[in-house]
Amino acid sequence: MATREEITSGLAEILEEVAGVNPDDVAEEKSFTDDLDVDSLSMVEVVVAAEEKFGVKIPDNEVQNLKTVGDAVSYIEANH
Amino acid sequence: MTAAGSRIVAMGHYQPSRVVTNDDLASTIDTNDEWIKDRVGIAERRIAGAESVADMATYAAEKALAGSGLAAADIDMVVVATCTSIDRCPNVATRVAARLGIAAPAAFDLNTACSGFSYGIGTADHAIRAGAARNAIVIGAEKLSDVTDWTDRKTAVLFGDAAGAAVLTAVAEGEEPGVGPVLWGSAPDKGDVLKIEGWQPYIQQEGQIVFRWATTALAPFAREACEKAGVDVSELAAFVPHQANSRIIDGIVKRLGLGPHVVVPKDLVVSGNTSAASIPLALSKLVERREVPSGAPVLLFGFGGGLTYAGQVVRCP
């Protein structure tokens, strides 16, 4: 089981690769769109990469609920 | 008389003269050039005036026929892939045949939205193999401006009008077929994510879901189309995917592992998404500019509403 910190740092790696986000900016309270400037299509790429990295299924209808990094960490923590 | 296969002998295309830039759109809806280029990769599109779907289809087919060396009398099949023909009867194919003086062809329209051209090439190839036709014209023609809600910033920036056409002919005995086996299918459970429904019909889509499907599900099918043709992906000279979104094209190219030597047109930059017209339009321009040698293997791959997909490897005319 990965800890929340490990999941956050894994997401930071994905965000850097997919959307060029500085890993130092990634924290649980940050909003993907408002704070990290991740557009809707990059968000899909983040989700697809997170599925592979953490071995979780993130269905289409769940993507819109992942507003902040913390939302994604909680979802991955509960489902992987 | 049955045939061992078919090949594409000539291409043609038509686009309306009116250019609509991103800045033009930004003057009427809340959008901007940078946003559109960043999300979709489109800089401008062509929008029809008085031209109908049948007009554009006819102009494209006329050019393809002229380049084929065949006469109108030689054509015995006309297939038009379109999802935007508001006129329901007669179909577009018979309108085109009448205008070109093709006397008595099998003539039908086919609607699988943006994948329609590859479905049409597959269908015409099968007819030629079965001996039901010898020389076919396959056209993708769309007037998306008729079904676009020009006040909707999510969709109005995406589409354009155009037509592209191919002339297919039966290969001579002993000649290698130039159209590979079609790989086609659909994901009907996702029908509601891309629709042109109601009256007046307007195109609507759930962009994130379409994007995810296109960037994750399609590369294996494209690879399978190559396998069916006995062509390794590394041997492709060009890959001509449906021109919906630059980032979808990049995603598929990456998953297919195509090297930088493979020509991958991004005609959507100047044409927008023209649905079933996008593949023949891009391929026709490649042929016109001689960007791919004649006879070289080119993978065509269409995908769109339905959701549907189809592709095949063809030899460049």
Fourth-tier CATH superfamily name of the largest domain in chain B:
Thiolase/Chalcone synthase
Q: What top-tier CATH class of the largest domain in chain B fits best?
A: Alpha Beta
The fraction of residues in strands of chain A falls at under 5%
Mean of pLDDT of chain B: 97
Question: Which residues of chain B sit in consecutive blocks of at least 5 with pLDDT less than 50?
Answer: none
Supply Rg of chain B.
18 Å
| Annotated CATH architecture of the largest domain in chain B | 3-Layer(aba) Sandwich
Strand composition percent of chain B: 15-25%
Beginning-to-end CA distance, first to last residue of chain B:
24 Å
User: Low-confidence segments of chain A, ≥5 residues, pLDDT <50?
Assistant: none
Largest sheet of chain B: 5 strands, mixed
Shape of chain A: globular
Largest sheet data of chain A? none
Shape call of chain B: globular
Q: What's the arrangement of strands in the largest beta sheet of chain B?
A: 1-7-6-4-5
* Separate helix tally of chain B: 10
Structural class of chain A: mainly alpha
Q: Briefly note the CATH topology name of the largest domain in chain B.
A: Peroxisomal Thiolase, Chain A, domain 1
Subcellular location (chain A): Cytoplasm
GO cellular component, one term (chain A): cytosol
GO molecular function, one term (chain A): acyl carrier activity
Pathway (chain A): Lipid metabolism; fatty acid biosynthesis
